[in-house]
Structures are given as structure tokens and as C-alpha cells.
Amino acid sequence: MPLKKMLKFYPIIDTSIVHISKIEDVAKTIIQAGARIIQLRAKDVSTRDFIDTARIIKQTIKPIAKKNKVKFIINDRVDIAMLICADGVHLGQDDLTITEARKILGNNKIIGISTHNIKEAAIAEKLGADYISFGPIFATSTKGDAQKAKGIDGLKKAREAVRIPIAAIGGITLENAIDVYKAGADCIAVISDILKADDIKDRVSKFISL
Fold first, then answer.
1. Which residue out of 36, 102, 114, 133 is catalytically annotated?
2. Contact 112, 135 (CB under 8 A)
3. Which of 51, 93, 115, 198 has the greatest CB tally within 10 Å of its CB?
């Protein structure tokens, strides 16, 4: 399945919202609801806990992933992505460069990177990123250091600047997702609106139905 098609909906499991003891169930629920890509973001846990949690997710989704070609992405940590044989890594602007990550992971792994302006987006495409995330589109509380919201207009400008898939991120909910797609996002990356939902499976299903 082409990456662009898989990236229509991009759920991110964040350990700042979901305790690591509950991540196995959450990951299984998200994938069973139909997601074809999932990312683990764990900035507030030890390296050991990050590795253990990543392995749990990989093992949890393995039976489903084999059948439906689900991709598992690790946030920031190229070393952990390599160690557990994840499908790829999502980098921040202060992490390893795309070039460095590619040397370590090889050409068959997915490499995405967070971008916050047109310059960063253009550089990411030039360096060979498989996709970029762009945002925050709307105000978000998930990241304490989040930049100023780019809005729908900012997303439209990013879409005009690059050809690779764009995963819009930041403050995206079921209610505003359609506007984000219409602005040119290939994909919406969602954290809080699914992880804080009373019924995660139902929420994911509704996002996918969009």
C-alpha cells in the first residue's frame, strides 16, 4: 500500500496522555478500528521504558499488521527504531538530520520530520523525507513548546511548496478535520482527540470514515 494512502489518518500514542501500562490495549484498539499507521511518542519516559513499550506495541499489532500492512513509527529515537526493527522514524528539527537517519536506517525505512514553516518543509523534501508533518495547524496543549498556530492558510501555503505527503498536526479534531483535508493535507495526525475520547475505537472509526 502506498505511503500516501496509508497516511490518510495518523494516530499518535503519547505517553504523556496514556500511561505505559495501558498502551498495549490502546494500540490494539486503534489498529482494530482500522488505522494503518501508528506512532509512539514517549518523551517523558526512560530509554528502557521507551524500548519496552515499543516492543509491546510491535508485538501487539503484529498479527493485524501482517495482514493489513500496518506501519509502526518511532518518534525521535532512530536508535530505538533500528533496535526494534520499526518501519520508520519521525524526527524533530533538533534530532538527527534526515541524511544521518537515512544512513543508519537505510532506504527502505520511512522517515518523516516535523516542520513549522515553508523553509523547513522545502528542506525536508530536498533531503529526501518520505513525508512531513506541518503545524501546529490549531492551538494545541499536547506540546508545551508548541509554536504559534499556522492555521488553514498556513497549511495551504505548505501544500503549494512541497509535493511529498503532508501530515497536518496540532489541535485537529473530528469537527475540524474536513477543513484540514480540504486545505491540502494528505493526512491528519491526531493525539488528544482520540486518546482522551471515552470510546477510542469509535473515535478512530469516525476519523477514518472521513
1. 114
2. no
3. 115
